[in-house]
Amino acid sequence: MPIPTTFHHSFSLSHHYKLQNLLYYIWPSGTRTARTALAFWGATAATLVIGAPTVHLLLLRRSLGRRTVARRSSRKITGGREGGAPAGDDNHRYENSLVTPTAADLDDGAAAAAAAVLLRETVSSHAISVRDLKPEFLSDGALQIQQQQQQTNGSPPPPPPLPITIHNIDKHGLVNAFLRTTMQSFTRMPHARLVRRMVLRSGDPEASASLEDSYLSDCAFRVGERVCGMYVVAERREEKKKKDEEEGGDATVVVVILRLKPPVGWTGPVVRGLLGIGVVLREGGDEGDGEEEEGRQGGSGSEVRKGGDQEGRVRFVSETVVWRTAEEKPSVLEGRVGGWLHELMVRWFVVKGVEAVTV
């Protein structure tokens, strides 16, 4: 098929040599057959369809990586124990470890086998000042300090602001608000439609209702409450952590543990695991926030910003722990692509949760 040299009376392609040469390479003319042109345009379309979302995900991962830190480990456990340590103990001493499956947890299919595989994924935000939290999470005294800091009278200059400590924070209200946002974000993910459909098919009205925004907005995440169809709150605890060289000032940790427990009548795949959502509130001082992001191959990452003021600081954490028998097929989370996408999703959840509770 020859290249058309005129499109209408006022335009002649013969006078535009550069455009003519360009069209020569993309138009099926001369030796360029229709099959060649079809292959060219098919390859171009495939590149756009696959390449554009991939670039978007890579840019999103880069953006989220500036605001979150991730750790990931996969270990074999034998007889309910992992390398001589209690089952589920990954031998890391860092403040973000929220979930430690007990032998009773692993006895649910995995520990009963000769060997099992346990996967742990932890994603946390960088530490932020408690002064940046929304007013509804501050006590009356802390709220007055925040308001005084925001007032500007011109002269004389305001005195240095008093520090807001972790004792001025509504810890349980904070973790509830963070958890509501992350769970609502989950229900808007594409794969949540499949979960919703399978939960509806199970015929459990409570499980179906737990996927609705109205339910999640009022959920207090008490022990026994169902969340997002697939989870049941198994534990809720508050614990203290003393100051040491690695972790800095004293800390208070509030954790909500959700167990993967499909409703009765569920016919889809069953994954054994726990999800821990929590906040780590650490007193000001010489903090040891120099954590690094570790890659799946033991890689490296950038150092988390350090703080040396007396202000309290808070870190938001999401930890996923799943296990299976050695004979079972690896889960999606264990795959390179599936694991990368799951980590990306959780990073996004954490960032959305932080945005919901900060000013």
What is the number of E strands? 12
Radius of gyration: 27 Å
Count of alpha and pi helical runs:
9
Overall, the morphology is globular
What does this structure look like?
The chain has helices at 17-26, 34-65, 103-106, 140-150, 171-187, 190-202, 205-209, 213-218, 336-357, and strands at residues 6-8, 11-12, 68-78, 81-82, 85-86, 115-125, 128-129, 226-227, 231-241, 251-260, 272-282, 313-325. It has 2 domains: 6-54, no CATH class; 68-132 and 159-357, no CATH class. The termini are far apart. A hairpin with a 3-residue loop joins strand 8 (226-227) and strand 9. Mean pLDDT is 76; it is low at 1-8, 82-96 and 286-308. The strands form 3 sheets. Strands 3, 6, 7, 8, 9, 10, 11 and 12 form an 8-stranded antiparallel β-sheet that branches. A two-stranded antiparallel ribbon has the order 1-2. The protein has a two-stranded antiparallel sheet with strand order 4-5. It is α+β, with helices and mostly antiparallel strands and 359 residues long. Keywords: Membrane, Transmembrane, Transmembrane helix. Residues 70-95, 285-310 are annotated as: Disordered.
Short characterization:
33% of the residues lie in helices and 22% in strands. The protein has 359 residues and is α+β, with helices and mostly antiparallel strands.
